[in-house]
Amino acid sequence: DVQLVESGGGSVQAGGSLRLSCAASGYALFRRCMGWFRQAPGKEREGVARLYTGSKISGYADSVKGRFIISEDYAKNTVYLQMNSLEPEDTTMYYCAAGVSCGSWSPRDFTGWGQGTQVTVS
């Protein structure tokens, strides 16, 4: 089973940047779908970015397109989410997820989840 641990969250001012990390164990990040989701209290989980590892195929939610970049480091078995030009609306918990198929934003298509990391933008 895959285990995922997120890190890199914190508090920044609007316009600032953060880089979230998702370290995987028990699961080789190759030809897998890795996704970043966010969920605020009382709201549904929202797909933010996804990457089919071992390729350059990626996708982004319209709300973050042009500001966020998802990437991977195969040697470190880690996926990243570079977040630039952060806005107060980006404030929420961010979760890393792993799956097989990368054709859907549905959380049900992802079988492994991290515990999340908090991002706060003022």
Q: Can you put this structure into words, describing what you see?
A:
With 122 residues, the protein is mainly beta. Helices cover 0% and strands 51% of the residues. It has strands spanning 3-7, 10-12, 18-25, 33-39, 46-52, 58-60, 68-73, 78-83, 92-99, 110-113, 117-121. It starts with a strand and ends with a strand.
Q: What would the keywords be for this entry?
A:
122 residues; mainly beta; four-stranded antiparallel beta sheet; 11 strands
Would you spell out the secondary-structure blueprint of this structure?
Elements: E1 3-7, E2 10-12, E3 18-25, E4 33-39, E5 46-52, E6 58-60, E7 68-73, E8 78-83, E9 92-99, E10 110-113, E11 117-121
Parallel strand pairs: 2-11
Antiparallel strand pairs: 1-3, 3-8, 4-5, 4-9, 5-6, 7-8, 9-10, 9-11
- Unreliable parts: none
Number of helices: 0
Query: Strand-residue fraction?
Result: over 45%
Largest sheet, in brief, is: 7 strands, mixed
Percent range of helical residues? under 10%
Mean pLDDT, to the nearest integer, reads 94
Order of helices and strands: EEEEEEEEEEE
* Overall strand count: 11
Q: How far apart, in Å, are the first and last alpha carbons? A: 37 Å
The gyration radius over C-alpha positions equals 13 Å
Structural class, from helix and strand content? mainly beta
- Outline: globular
In short:
The chain is built from no helices and 11 strands. It has 122 residues and is an all-beta fold.
